[in-house]
């Protein structure tokens, strides 16, 4: 009887001990955990539940060719999980209630469960997510979910957000009215037809390129230093209130007039491929804009550009300016150029022969009244 009792006790402890071993089917994930002496404290070939729950550090299995993180749910007290550059298709960290930072970018995730109220930073970019629920992540300050297949994104509960990067998705709507702490918003290359950032007065960087925006009001965003809104359908852009703007890119729109005279610290301007007829760059800071950072080409109606010093701009801004555009110092000079253009002299008079030797003939082809002709040089 005594032997039977001892055998039963031994069997009980053996069964109990084995019941505490965590199932970790992915060999690479298990090898990482077993090799970590801070986790595998008894230095055996398994990870026990007690070892997992006692561990309060971070787990980094990035680039380990891992396809399954089953077993991660036992690590309820980890604060950080990095698992980027793997082959994960699904990830559930709902049990990891102490988790504050999760980076799972560059996988093949179609499912991600992040019901973690302590989470402050989430990076899940470059996956295949069609849905992302962050409604319970009220402490979230950083959300990077770009390059997925999201058609909707609700961040109304994430009032602590300072960084939201959701570019390269399929979003048709984005409501950031509750995210008043936002500093950086990148929603480029989606399918947005409107964007309201009037409540985001702390915003310093806004990228909304490659959408279908027809209007953009940034008058309340007085802290903006960078604005990228190229490849939209904008016909107007008022940046007069954005006095600390250093970078402005609004190329490939339908803007007809642009005034950056109030943007006195601007160092980078790109407004090529628009319908500009008026451009005022007289802001007292022209000499701090390099030639490569001044792009105003492919604006066929832009005959005159108002600048600080026409002579300096003509000599220094040469690479991305149309040959038909002329630098002038003020609006009066622009008006004078327009007046000459309106007379259309080329069609109303003919000068021949060209080149000339001993004589030159000027013929009036229309109803032009000529009061005075002046020959300035032989050319």
Quick one: overall form? elongated
Q: What gyration radius follows from the Cα positions, in whole Å?
A: 33 Å
Helix content: 10-25%
Largest sheet: number of strands, sense, barrel closure:
12 strands, parallel
**Structural class by sheet pairing and helices:** alpha/beta
* Mean of pLDDT: 90
Task: Please report the distance between the alpha carbons of the first and last residues.
Answer: 125 Å
What is the tally of beta strands? Answer: 20
* Proportion of beta-strand residues: 15-25%
> What pattern of helices and strands is seen along the backbone?
HHHEEEEEEEEEEEEEEEEEHEHHEE
Total helical elements: 6
Structure commentary:
The protein is an alpha/beta fold. The protein contains 6 helices and 20 strands. It has helices at residues 2-19, 27-35, 49-54, 310-316, 331-343, 345-348, and strands spanning 58-60, 80-82, 90-92, 101-103, 111-113, 121-123, 142-144, 163-165, 184-186, 205-207, 226-228, 247-249, 257-259, 268-270, 278-280, 294-295, 304-306, 326-328, 349-352, 361-364. The protein has a 12-stranded parallel sheet, with no helix packed on it. A 4-stranded parallel sheet has the order 13-15-17-18. Strands 3-5 form a two-stranded parallel ribbon. Mean pLDDT is 90; it is low at 1-19.
